[in-house]
Amino acid sequence: MSMRKAAVVTAGSWGTGLASVLADNEYDVMLWTRSETQAEEINRDRLNRKYTGDYELPERIRATAKMEEALAGASLVLFVSPSHAMREVARQAKPFLDSAVTVIHATKGFEPGTMKRMTAVLAEELPQIDAGRLVVLSGPSHAEEVIQRCPTTVVVAAERLDAAEEAQDALINSYFRVYTNPDVTGVEVGGALKNIIALGAGLSDGLGFGDNAKAALITRGLTEIARLGVAMGGHALTFSGLAGIGDLVVTCTSKHSRNWRAGYLLGQGKPLEEVLETMGMVVEGVKTTKTAFALSRQYEVSMPITEQLHEVLFAGKEPRQAVGHLMGRLRTHEIEELADSFGDKWML
Asked: Of 131, 189, 197, 312, which one has the fewest beta carbons inside 10 Å?
């Protein structure tokens, strides 16, 4: 029996995927869920059918609906709650977390209303944890493929290198490669904003616009991500890495991406409410679009793709009209815009 224990909060698809990685690395993993029924299914059948289908979970994973039981004895706690629920879940966890625990989050979004990054939320709710040791995990990583042990590469970021390296050591194995990065802001912003561009990519595919349009959307979308990310304090180079272009590509092009699927349904004329009901899981890109639109105003940066998606999602604008608006913008110079987004050092 392993003496290492980890807790994963909560038991969605990504939480279950990361729990599987930790179990393969000889951690005894407690997977927390709000649902007693879901916990019973995982413990009885080794399955989490709603989120990971018929993929059998490792024996080292156990599930519980009791937070105290989940966190008891854990040396590592991994939060994978939806962005809108992170604060509440962290509050529930606070009484049971020791200051020496390694805390990682793998949530890609901002808190609605406050527009705060997830490490900021965790720092406020878990004051016993050194804020410099809070770790974010991001990168191109679909849970469905991680559970199948497909080769996957991600990045972990923390202000303190020792914390990032602890997370790296806990998670890295033969199919799950982990890099470290000191740029917490850039990694979190990249992971959140790529969901917006994925919505746009799905919408473009739903309209039947083809590969040319999607390639342009991804490329120009990265420029928007970097523009806001650098304005918020992120490092330009982060957006050319796994949490930037890497996550953006996989989310905009994969059948596993719920943000792409939501955009595709919107492009086919489905109303937003129906799309979200059909998805049955959180589509982070919808809430993030509203937040990013507000942040672009706050930081005074141009984000035309985000602006048009905001109009489609929340103001009833027709998708084709939004595309026409983007294509009809004033002429500009690409290199000047890249320098504006990434910094003058990118000027060759």
From this structure: 131
